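Dear colleagues,

As part of the handover before I leave the project, I'm documenting each prediction I ran so the next person doesn't have to rerun anything. This entry is a single chain, and its sequence is reproduced below.
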Amino acid sequence: MQNRIVELRKVARALPQSSGVYLMKDRLGHVIYVGKAKNLKRRVGSYFQGSRRFIRSQPKIAAMVEMVREVAVVETKNETEALLLEGKLIKEYKPKYNTDFIDDKQFLMVSVDFQNDLPRFRLCRNRKNDGAHYYGPFAQAGFLRSTLLEMRKKFGILLSDAKPVRLKDGRVRLYDDVRAEIFAGHNETTVEEYRSRVDEACFFLEGKAKGWLKELREEMNKRAEKMDFERAAELRDLSDSLSQTIAKTRRFTRGFPNAVESEGEDLTDLVECLALDRIPVVIECFDVSHVSGTFVVASMVRFVRGKPDPRSYRRFKIRSFQGNDDFKAMEEVITRRYGRLLKEGVQFPDLVVVDGGEGQVSSAKGAFASLGCPLPPLIGLAKREETIVFSDRREGLKLNARSPALRLLQRLRDEAHRFANQFNADLRSRRIRESVLDDFSGLGEVRKKALLAYFGSMEKLKKASVEDLAEVEGIGPKIARRLNLFLRKGKSSWF
């Protein structure tokens, strides 16, 4: 056991000091625990330090550590992504030693029905096809609930418990006598003025209007200078709560019905913004996905007239290298995709989009050059500030958040990202299942492939009898008996 712990310590020391999710696996490759970490190296390493009293004092954790044979990690950009990914993986694998998230509850979202002339902000856990607009998901339910209450005070919006009253003069009384003092502004207002409040609140919920946070922090500093530390602490907590809420949101859609772009408006706007020669009827978008340089894959999604065309989606395993190199991966996938179209005499799309900035665009441009073909309209969409990067050395372009063109590009990018991550997850899941055979002595790669090809899956292989196993080419009766016992009992030393 001590040798195993030493090896796991070495693995932990080699991990990055970034945020992410770690998966503890037993000797059969089963995921037994999923956790998140602000610092993967430090967090994972803490499990394998023999001096940790906390580990020794917790029988459940100590038992888990004894079972761990492998640790896999998935890096994330921040703690928020780590938290969301943790919940997703726990639901997927249902690890033995996890208790949180196992009940399949969804994270909270905020629903706003703009089809109603008095839209309300409601909490929900599932996105429905009901015409409403959804914000989220939000990982911290407590922060979200308190944020909505404060938003009602700040913007004068309606929550799910409100019962507005229509007045004879056409105006609306938003709150009853009990709640009339909640909002400092006018309780009796017009529908148009209320909609402007909603619009302002939505921008804050999207994390795009930071003026309120700035005001709170300035007021907090003033209170602190006046020795009013109690109020300063309240303002600090409120500011932190609001900041954490809007930092954890992902926007689906927004806007009033009369502001929603009509069919084709997004394409028309894209022509104007990108200075294209014609409407991009066919658009292809690429993304690269990997786990710390392993399971490197890429995706291509295709939109026709601004709508997804799933039948034309493609996914790629990166073949030219192993490791973490998004630029090289992008160059390979562009070369393979359009090299094939050239060979088949198929017309290129009207616009090519890559997920990334200058590096990814430059790699894609180099791929087209290596093919010796004309460069189609090519851009990149950099995530951090949603900057459009051009291939012709034009200065980067930042569009208004309401721009139909930007919304179309975001839909493309998000769909490519989803498709790539799904493929990556499928490969990882398959590798975890198939890794069981790596612990069985006496099987080379040829025999492993033969077994999996014969039975089709690990699930069917595990259920196979000795006689069934012996029918596989290269698997004699002796190995069949050992393998049968190993798959049933997890032992590889039977003779």
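The mean pLDDT is 80. The two ends are 24 Å apart (CA to CA).

All the best with the project,
I.
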